[in-house]
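Re: weekly structure request thread

Next one in the queue (121 aa):
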Amino acid sequence: MIGKLLIVFGLVLGLALSAVSYNVSVADEETTTIRGTVVCLGCTLKKTEGANAACKIYGHKHGLATDDGGLYSFLENKNSEEVITTDKYAMKEVEVTGKVFENAHIIDLEDISVVEGGGGY
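Done, posted below.
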């Protein structure tokens, strides 16, 4: 049991340290462009982390999954409403531009565009 706790603690510490080093490079910019795939946050966390998501009951809430394993929510506002609540961009590879709040893994979306040939339902 203690061995498992040490492993979990080590993983959490490693993730925290890697997030700190990445935070410095993005935080200096007012806006940035990130490429990734629009996914349902709950379904993704359920599949990858065993989260107790109930998207079939409460609906899908979309965010951005990046190739480096990052998972970002969109700040809820008029710019992100269509991305978050509809399937228009679901499972499509996109480029998003906006202000990234790294500590919270949130993107204040300014613009989104589908990458040519980038998936979809």
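Residues 1 and 7 are 10 Å apart (CA to CA). The beta strands are 32-40, 62-65, 71-74, 92-101, 106-119.
Next request, please.
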